[in-house]
Design brief:
The complex is a heterotrimer of chains A (235), B (540) and C (309). Helix content of chain A is 75%, strand content 3%. Chain A has 235 residues and is an all-alpha fold. Chain A has one domain: Four Helix Bundle (Hemerythrin (Met), subunit A), CATH 1.20.120.80. In chain A, helix 3 packs across helix 6, helix 4 runs antiparallel to helix 5 and helix 6 packs antiparallel against helix 7. The longest helix of chain A has 37 residues. Chain B has a single domain, classed as Cytochrome C Oxidase, Chain A. Chain B is mainly α and 540 residues long. In chain B, 68% of the residues are buried. Among the domains of chain C are: 107 residues, Sandwich (Immunoglobulin-like); 105 residues, Cytochrome Bc1 Complex, Chain D, domain 2 (Orthogonal Bundle), CATH 1.10.760. Chain C has seven helices and twelve strands. In chain C, a hairpin with a 2-residue loop joins strand 1 and strand 2. The C terminus of chain C is likely disordered. The chains are: A mainly alpha (235), B mainly alpha (540), C alpha+beta (309). The interface between B and C is large, with 88 and 78 residues.
Amino acid sequence: MHNSPIATADQEAHQNPALLHHFATEEQQKDAASLGMWVFLATEIMFFGGMFCAYLVYRYWYFGDFGAGSQSLNVVLGGTNTAVLICSSLTVALAVRAAQLGQQKVIIICLILTMLLGLVFLGIKGVEYHDKFVEHHVPGPGFHFPGHVPGHPDIPINQHHAQIFFSLYFIMTGLHALHMIIGVGLFAFITYNAMRRRYGPDYYTPVEVAGLYWHFVDIIWIYLFPLLYLIDRSK
Amino acid sequence: MASGERETYLNKEYGIKSWLLTVDHKRIALLYLVSITFFFFIGGFFALLIRLELLTPAGDLVQADTYNKLFTMHGQVMVFFFLIPAVPAVLGNFLIPIMIGAKDLAFPRVNLLSWYLYIIGGALMLYTILNGGVDTGWTFYTPLSTEFLNTHVVTAGLAIFVAGFSSILTGLNFVVTTHRMRAPGMTWSRLPLFVWAHYATSIIQLLGTPVLAITLLLVVCERLFHLGIFNPALGGDPLLFQHLFWFYSHPAVYIMILPGMGIVSEIVCCFSRKRIFGYTAMALALLGIAVVGFLVWAHHMFVAGISLYAAMIFSLLSYFVAVPSAIKVFNWTSTMYKGSITYQTPMLYAFGFIGLFTMGGLTGLFLASLGIDVHVTDTYFVVAHFHYIMVGGMVMAYLGGMHFWWPKISGRMYPEGWGRLAALLVFVGFNLTFFPQFILGYMGMPRRYWDYSHSPEFQILNVLSTAGATVLAVGYVLPMIYFLWSMRYGKPAPDNPWNAAGLEWMVPSPPPTFNFEEQPVVTWEAYNYDEIKEEVPVAQ
Amino acid sequence: MANNVDALYIFLLVVSGMMTVAIFTLVLVFAVRYRKRPGQRAEQIDGSHALEITWSLIPFCIFMVFFAWGAIIFFQERKPPQNSAEVYTVAKQWMWKFEHMEGQREINELHVPIGRDVKMIMTSQDVIHSFFVPAFRIKQDVLPGRYTVAWFHATKAGTYHLFCAEYCGTMHSGMVGSVVVMEPKDYEAWMGGGGNQPLAVTGEKLFTELGCVTCHRSDTQGRGPNLVSIFGKPVLLEDGRTVVADENYIRESILQPGAKIVNGFKPIMPTFQGQISDEQLNALVAYVKSLSQAPSGQTGGRKMATATP
């Protein structure tokens, strides 16, 4: 591929103020941004992956106590959250499409919807955390998880193992929530730019790239939900 | 900028703000240079204290707790704040865009963010050091680090956590840059091996560092909230920590060495006036080391309590990763064959690297062998092994690279005589410091021992080692002095003082801010020394 | 065993030495022979597939020898012989506590006779330590919460360094001691004085005091499994898994009885976590082991009559 040298790039720069100085063409800039986000998501997979690994090891070893832990989570709230996030991925995809088509109002509406849904998710999460706090399921000195291993009314739950379940629960969902907060903040910034009509068919990279990030956060939840809430639920 | 003076990246703007808010990859490289040099001397100072304590069998210089902090922080500072960032963040940042014909990295602002993250991590580390330190060992093994120590484990862990993100973002920048920013005609097979090396390094940084990040985060949470994830008394597993920790920390050693290998390829080719022997094999070897390096982590855990069969598998895989490294040594040597060789300082460091990396790598074979490892693991044998690779290999490559590209970076020549003297001091000092430690290790001297008065037979080798360390220290201080000196009094450097191949030598020394007047179109292969008629100029 | 390790080490030294000398020599020779000379140009050589393959395959084959030899040694190191004499070890910050089967207790010094296979069954009270005897070329990390095992067979009388080889805090470098290898008759003499209670007998007493005997009867009427002859045999658990009843299983069963319920029994055993020390745990484990047919080892003293089945 032969890029035209600087002369054409300068022309383009005049036409498109979004082109950064060190890129030769807009296409190069867009490709770089896309690849950058995909590579970043790969690192995020490894980041969450470490936690998933720890969780899976302990799930395997302490399946009884972890089963009890899963059953104590509110699957209605968790399931609702899953639906909420999936919808928000839809709205963000619609926002990207609107940007591609230059539908300025639709971009803003979809982005705002996405953020709202994200906040709903965080709100529901907050309710769940509150419940856990009230039930003394938060790891620490006040931790108390009475009961029996599902399917074995004679075997009491091992408090140490249960604490590990909840430690991992809070850390994993907490980090996920942190990523969502960052995502909402990102979208706030992008919505602000959208209101200033920064995005259109010739430049919508930030919307697309932020959308990618959001889809990823969604996918992490789609793994978290069954792993934390659903396994051993029916016992 | 004085009128009539050519505009370079150094004189384009003056003032603190123009440096602290720069997005120019070359300025960021210099920001890193200052920071990592600072931490190098801190880590080095700790090393000196360690060696002084070990002059005598009794623990008579510092207290036991202090000694434990010294070796811990020596390791943490050297690994996370010097070795991991040094070549990529200084030389990689400076050179990669120029080598591929680009104006900057793909994400210049992310590059600056990387530096700030490094600084924040460094500040947290300094805070830890100045407030009593941490004594977990750089490896943070649990439950010692989570339950049994009262030092600043949390701040140290957070410092490394933050610095890790600096590393991740640098890797991200390099990968995207290499994929998307190459000038027309700069195909993958024309890339200098320096770029390939950083590409391979970046893959490790991207995929490995996040695992360390989450592991440290779990340790921090465990300490803060008294969790039991890694504590057997609370149902946790200390071996899980070790697996997670080494999953990063083994590939991390390849993060440290691969860039050095890239440097050596550039230097050997230039000072032999030859293209590299076996370019494809060299590039594939870099990638091979990066990939297979992810599969061997539990060779740090052979006696930790893993199963017999796991141990066997990891031992076998560890031998696999040795093959590409061997290939590289043979190829560098073959590159010299029928060359036209001169002995400037960079080449002397390259010679040193080839020899010492070979020795360090060979001792890795000892460690990979289960029967031997049982005896020498956790002894000075391991300490000697990794210092051979990291110091005898990596630091020498770094110094070689600094000398090689100093004219490009600063526009000045360093004094060649002093350069050669320093190289010699480093080589001699290094061997004297670390070779005795192989013997100490086989004799049974364990690592991390403050006091060895029960085994006075260890003393003579320790004395030799300390003597070497003082020579080594001089060898390191000298370049600092003369590099600084050269910035004012050094001979102005031409564009291509070595008549070397590579796009970085086709731009002025120092380069202008945007590197190239016009985007280059590459029509030649890498290391086109057949087309370069001139030899390396005689030392000035 | 140590000789095998040294033999492999010397082999590695020789090969590495040759390799090092070869590389150093080549580099130096090339550096001198091909130094820049007026009128002479470098000769560009792209590479050679044949060479690359050769110098990949040959080192690889040599590496496989290193691997195999080392693996064989390791395999032997990990399989203590059947009738090894056992020494229970509890490591703590910063000392080594040993208990022989005959009941002798030692701190930081371990007496053993020449010619006896000795198996160390080790656990830690706090952090990870590592049992390292350089003279024997053995090392094994000692973990809290479980047993790890090392074994050796001393052939020469003498006193040998014992080091802790896993950093364990302030006095890590002070956690040293010695292994004293004695001639058999000197060892008998050393053993004889003291009148200690054998470890398994201590365990038996605890077994009664703590009430274990109420459920774990030596018949099939007990609420808990009969422990006679279970050691070393597979155990069917009620979730279908089968595990081997080794030291770690017995230990876990005492501290976390709910973890593995034996098939056909109710999970009613109370936990003894926090109620007994590591030494008491060791005694109980030793007692349970003594209930199986094969004579579990002693470190010396009168030879036990071996029961022939």
